Amino acid sequence: QVQLVESGGGLVQPGGSLRLACTVSGFSLDEHTIGWFRQAPGKGREGVSCIAIRDGSTYYKDSVKGRFSISGDNAKNTVYLRMNSLKPEDTAVYYCARKIRGLVGSSGAYCSDPRLFEYDSWGQGTQVTVSS
Q: Which of 38, 77, 95, 114 has a 20 to 30 A CA-CA distance from 45?
């Protein structure tokens, strides 16, 4: 049974840091790209970052480049999203998701600009609130 479970969200002041974790089961991180998405109140779900252990590719949305860092630990079946210098506009529910196996982007990399329809399994989400 495929499962993705997020953890690590919480309330943090502007400029602070959090590390989100996505622990998966029922499949291998070697075979699937993992994406992080977020959804702010009243807005659509947007792709933030992804990682493909298979070819080492990563992606970051422009607004988080230089502040967020994604990594994977195959032994722990976990993907991490380290978020530094958090801003109020980062406030959202963060979801991790599994990309359909074998899909590649226009560059040929397994991880590319995350698109909702390319992901077939989702976690329940974890709330991140950035506020003073």
A: 77
Q: Which amino acid is at 59?
A: Y
Residue whose C-alpha is closest to residue 87's, from 68, 113, 112: 68
Q: Tell me, what amino acid is at 115?
A: R
CB-count exposure of residue 20 (10 Å: 0-12, 13-18, 19+): buried
| Cα angle 130, 53, 99; round to 5 | 70
Q: State both tokens at 111.
A: 């991880």
Is the Cα torsion angle 62, 35, 76, 31 positive or negative in sign? negative
CA distance 93 to 86: 14
Query: Across residues 83-89, what is the average pLDDT?
Result: 98
CA dihedral 49, 89, 115, 77 (to 10 degrees): 40
Q: What is the pLDDT of residues 103-126, one digit of tens each?
A: 888 888 899 899 999 999 999 999
Question: Residue 112 CB: number of other CB atoms within 10 A?
Answer: 22
Residue 97 CA to residue 22 CA, distance in Å, equals: 9
